[in-house]
Design goal:
six-stranded mixed sheet, elongated
Length: 443
């Protein structure tokens, strides 16, 4: 579902644009909204209902404590954040009232993506209901397990005079800036009277995000507004995220793909663990740069961000190739596996290989080594060359098994062995089964 936020632009353009660039929306408290009747609720009914208990059970039932809690609960509504949205981008009154007489712009969000939890606040989405009278808090509202019911009465009910807005809201349990997934912004609509320089400023600031742009215009011979597609001036810009651009020189750029394959968020301590699959290796400087981008663009206000990088060529990953960890006052960047220069050194050795080789594999997960299967004098050997130039060579027992060819140390005492499948993937096995897979290095 698409939802819309009208913005005034003009002297507030930099402020409004900053929030999109930094991927947050601002949820103000009720008293800062334009309707003075926001969060207007009454508790007459619930007070009357509770007084019935004293009539039925006499003085044994004391309700003062309950009423004090109720008063405090209603008073706490002042701390709630309210982010107001609309279901339409083409209402002339919304453009006039909230987009500075059609000179501002309108943000289109994908509502489900906007609600993804990337912050420590709770989000309560709801459709605004319109009523002739302010709502009443009742016993059923207090004892229900559905939080939305009480939030709808406190912050999701407005006078019927506002019904033209077709409003949805995100209620937050704390007011202020709320981070969101940047891909929630799917389009920008330019107001009918928006200056051209402001349109260009928006497209320039949001380049590389795959955002669509539209111009609001009048439908011929009607009072209706329609949209017309606008060509993005910065369409060929580098992608905002999910590609890393390694600058080689002024003319050449390497593009390194990566993918976030797992996210684990601990909202109690405002922490997230990210697992990322890299297309190829980065240097420590590049890892720091990429980590900084992920932290600032996705998790700006998350205090602890642990990033674990895995390499695409390693099929089964139990340990990370590298880490980038962010703490409030500390940052750790460490390559745990083979560095790029160490990999190049191993590949140079492969290029100079003169033996009868069956295949080469780089083990990035445990021993950080180059594995070479070769034949000599009718026998098969597995050589493990470590990063410090030391090596271990073991004669192998070779046998055909289901799924490939099995290689086992001739003096195997631990029950471990490897199987090379038809695609050349090296698979480590122990008594507990498969525990690692490595792709063959292509010649």
């Amino acid at each position: 579902m698409k939802v819309y936020k009208y913005r005034s632009g003009n002297e507030y353009l930099d402020r409004d644009l900053k929030s999109i660039v930094e991927n947050y929306f601002y949820a103000p408290i009720a008293e800062n909204l334009n309707d003075p009747c926001e969060t207007l609720v009454y508790a007459d009914k619930i007070r009357h209902q509770t007084k019935l208990f004293t009539t039925l059970f006499g003085e044994k039932v004391k309700l003062d404590d309950f009423h004090n809690v109720l008063d405090g609960f209603i008073k706490n509504k002042q701390k709630l954040g309210i982010y107001s949205l609309s279901k339409t981008y083409s209402d002339e009154l919304l453009w006039a009232h909230y987009a500075n007489n059609h000179t501002g712009f309108c943000i289109e969000y994908d509502f489900e993506t906007l609600l993804e939890q990337v912050t420590f606040c709770n989000f309560y989405p709801l459709n605004v209901e319109y009523s002739k009278e302010p709502p009443q808090i009742e016993l059923n509202d207090v004892y229900t397990k559905d939080d939305k019911q009480i939030f709808k009465k406190i912050a999701g009910t407005k006078s019927t005079r506002w019904s033209y807005e077709e409003e949805l809201r995100i209620i937050t349990d704390k007011s202020g800036e709320q981070d969101y997934n940047f891909s929630a912004v799917t389009a920008i609509y330019f107001g009918y009277r928006m200056p051209e320089k402001d349109k260009d400023k928006i497209m320039s600031a949001l380049k590389g995000r795959n955002i669509s742009y539209y111009q609001i215009t009048l439908k011929e011979k009607s009072y209706s507004f329609i949209r017309e597609k606008v060509v993005d001036t910065y369409l060929e810009s580098e992608q905002y995220l999910f590609k890393y651009y390694r600058k080689q020189n002024s003319k050449n750029t390497d593009i390194i793909d990566y993918e976030i394959i797992e996210k684990k968020y601990n909202r109690a301590i405002n922490k997230i663990n990210l697992t990322i699959k890299l297309d190829s290796k980065l240097s420590e400087t590049e890892l720091e740069d990429l980590g900084n981008q992920l932290k600032s663009k996705l998790y700006r206000r998350t205090e602890i961000v642990y990033i674990f990088y895995h390499l695409k060529q390693i099929k089964k990953h139990n340990t990370a190739w590298a880490i980038t960890h962010f703490l409030p006052k500390e940052k750790t960047i460490e390559i745990l596996g083979l560095k790029l220069e160490e990999e190049i050194k191993f590949k140079n050795k492969i290029n100079k290989e003169s033996r009868e080789v069956l295949g080469h594999w780089m083990d990035e997960t445990f021993l950080n080594s180059l594995l070479t299967l070769f034949e000599e004098n009718g026998k098969t050997y597995l050589e493990t060359l470590y990063r410090d130039e030391s090596k271990l060579i073991k004669e192998q027992i070779v046998s055909k098994v289901k799924g490939g060819i099995k290689y086992e140390d001739i003096d195997n005492q631990h029950g471990e062995y490897i199987i090379i499948d038809q695609k050349g993937v090296l698979k480590y096995y122990s008594e507990n089964g498969l525990f690692n897979e490595i792709e063959k290095i292509k010649p």
